[in-house]
Amino acid sequence: MVDTSGYSAGNFLNATDVQKLPEDQRFGVILEGIEFRETEFEGKKSTRLYIPVRLSDGVEKDFNCNKTSAKAIQKEWGTDSDSWIDRKIKFIIARQNVRGTFRDIVYAEPMK
Fold first, then answer.
1. Rounded to an integer, what distance in angstroms lies between the CA atom of residue 25 and that of residue 7?
2. pTM to 2 decimals?
3. Exposed (0-12), middle (13-18) or buried (19+): which is 53, by Cβ within 10 Å?
4. 21, 55 Cβ separation under 8 angstroms
């Protein structure tokens, strides 16, 4: 049997990735390669901020950064993403209603 769970999830950080980590290890180090990407969901186009991170267990993933997380990071380290590289962000899971369905959402905040 081949475990295909990593294939379907892609290289994007999700709540399951964070929940697998011990509570005191739910963080990542920001890597080079922060970028905006054009995305489309249900016919709507948008621009999303992707932050590559190395999780505390050594796995590298892309964090699809929501606006709440981006604002928290910007408040602490400024708007120049080059100043974010090699810094740690803590991941927090919040259960929220997204388009009528409750989902676990990953938020990030700077670690001081």
1. 24
2. 0.87
3. buried
4. yes
- When divided into structural domains, the chain yields a total of 1
> pLDDT (tens digit, 9 = 90+) per residue, 39-69?
888 889 999 999 999 999 999 999 999 999 9
Q: How far is CA 2 from the centre of its chain?
A: 27
Measured in degrees and rounded to the nearest 5, phi and psi for residue 9 equal -80, -20
Kindly tell me the sign of the dihedral angle through the C-alpha atoms of 33, 6, 68, 41. positive
Q: How far is CA 19 from the centre of its chain?
A: 13
List the structure tokens of 92: 């927090």
Report d(CA 90, CA 59) in Å as an integer: 15
Task: Determine the structural domain holding residue 34 and report its residue range.
Answer: 5-110
